[in-house]
Amino acid sequence: MTGQALPDQHGLTTRQAVPSDRAAILSFVERSYQRIARWRVPDRWDWQFAQNPFRASPDVLPVFLALDSAGRIVGQSCVMLVPMQLLGRSHTAGWGCDLFVAPEWRGRGVARRLQASVHAATEVHLSLNMAAETRHLKLELGDALLDPIPVYELTVRYEASAIRQVLEQRFSALRAGYLMSGTSKLLAAIASTSAGWKQSRRGRHPDPSIRLLEGKEFGREHDELWSRVAGSFRSAIERRTPYLDWKYLRQPHLTYRILEAWRGEVLAGFVVFRTSRAPEAACGRIVDVVADPRDQEAVAALIVRAVNSLLEEGCPRVRVATSVSAFAAVFERVGFRRVEEMTAVVGKGEASAEVVKATEGGWLLGMGDGDWDQFPAPG
Ligand SMILES: CC(C)(COP(=O)(O)OP(=O)(O)OC[C@H]1O[C@@H](n2cnc3c(N)ncnc32)[C@H](O)[C@@H]1OP(=O)(O)O)[C@@H](O)C(=O)NCCC(=O)NCCS
Fold first, then answer.
1. Does domain 150-156+205-342+355-364 have CATH number 3.30.420.10?
2. Of the residues 32, 133, 137, 139, which should be mutated to test ligand 1's pocket, given the most ligand atoms within 8 Å of the CB?
3. Considering the entire predicted model, what is its pTM?
């Protein structure tokens, strides 16, 4: 990545940020994101951009700025750099994130210029679940849409309060005030008994030769596992220690748990998961599944134990997203239902459409990819 300065007819310049821009960027983020800014700066920002281990040089940040004629920041677009394998080759890819243009500058092509700078400087550009304007800009710049990534949910017990909320939205306040209390309790009871997850699956262990252990750190065995399974995916963020350690153990505001499946002395797979906390809605999230997709026993053992763990901690539902059909099959088998999907876009210059074709059905993507699982996460 390199810096660039391009003045235009509004006196605007765009360039890549350098470490001395930090204070001005943090103040732009605080003004822009207001109530949620405290989750974005300074801890997450330092972790995600300034301390990102995959930067080619410490002299520039993976942040692109638009500045007015007085040198004030009026827009930004960032990339979260990650190591990626794509059709057998390694790249540094960038997840697009934190595109923001100051309201008084919108509609004048600032976002378009920022996106063009990001694309010019990033080998492979990736995006998940972007705003309609952003998607429009990315497709215009030559990016291509991947198959949508299904999001699954397992709902075990509906909180009476959540049902009340839904009813409140549907009925007039007066009428609902009279009907609600009894109706919501009844619905909650029906939902609890019909789910049946706890009774049917707690403690069940699909394969007795698999030992499940709580992991505390990533290391040699995880790298060996990745070397064995990487070939199952045509495209993936490389799940080796430098990435896993940074992404799951050093990310601020979130505490992830690691659950590992061992066969003897060999690590067969692991999942990364977490519980929510306010202001997030009550929900458990399985953000990563790393295993040979053909090893359905290991995948099932991991998922069942992770779900049980989340339920025991009081999560009324568990969410997961996966682009891997073999993982999705296990989720469906144990009772997860498809509830929505994430949009995914890839950009590799003029080769974007070819990349989509050549990698079809072969991506490893989930909730832990991109900056989808930042605190507080939606859903
Ligand atoms: C989204 C945002 C960055 C756009 O910035 P901007 O500088 O006004 O955008 P630009 O002027 O460069 O161009 C926007 C393009 O998107 C188009 N667009 C606007 N709304 C759109 C919509 N709902 N669907 C599709 N395209 C849309 C515009 O028409 C324009 O394209 P055109 O020139 O071909 O007509 C800005 O509105 C913003 O900061 N919003 C709040 C934060 C946010 O939503 N960020 C995106 C996170 S993914």
1. no
2. 133
3. 0.88
